[in-house]
Amino acid sequence: MEAGALRDDVEVEEEHVLLDLYSVSEQFDLPPNAPYVLSGLDTLNPILVIDNKLKLIGHYEETIGTCIALTEESTSPINPEATGPSEVNKSSGKCNMNPNQCPSKQVKPVACINKVLKFKLLVDTNVPDASALPLMKVFN
Known about the structure:
Number of strands: 9
Order of helices and strands: EHEEEEEEEE
Number of domains: 1
Shape: extended
Strand content: 35-45%
Structural class: mainly beta
Distance between the termini: 38 Å
Radius of gyration: 23 Å
């Protein structure tokens, strides 16, 4: 087998982490599309630098119970001709739905969250500039 080749029988275990910025968002205005650098995910205290200005330090907390991340997708309105008995008034045979109804939304599970990564402001001045941090992920 070639070095670096993946074996078919090896399972890759994924762990999903939720970044919790609630306590920081109350103190600072966080731009929704600001670039950020997240480093040290494999350490006890990862560092998050937002817009190369705001430096945060995180700590992991295990989730209690089931924590699921969901996504929302738009769907088209239900077609009255294709509906089942629950959508049709059986006594009159007419549909109870408004034909001008807005598109509905469908919620689907994306992932099960294993840990929550909570952040607070990092006040240590010895932390290097974001460009000097070991880069884990850069998002824009």
